[in-house]
Design brief:
alpha+beta; 84 residues; Enolase-like, domain 1
């Protein structure tokens, strides 16, 4: 399933996540720090959705209460809730 999420409070503008059988197959992030987000996306491919959430949820970016990794965790949680 493919799930689209609009992050809040960060530079990235859109996250597209493809999952299958509880594993992350593909992540595409529009906007934000391109190199960092490409790296994060590559690292989570093949990872269990729950494990990715556990590892990234709560990460902050500087003074912000969230970050792109935290928003990716929120997107993954939303995709689980939506049945994606």
């Amino acid at each position: 399933m493919t799930f689209t999420y609009r992050p809040k409070g960060v530079c990235s503008q859109l996250m597209e996540i493809e999952t299958e059988d509880g594993k992350i197959k593909r992540v595409n992030v529009v906007g934000g720090c391109s190199g960092n987000l490409q790296g994060i996306s590559a690292l989570v491919v093949g990872m269990d959705v729950e494990e990715a959430i556990r590892r990234m949820e709560g990460i902050r970016c500087g003074y912000k209460s969230t970050s792109c990794p935290d928003q990716l965790a929120q997107a993954l949680k939303a995709s689980l809730a939506a049945g994606a």
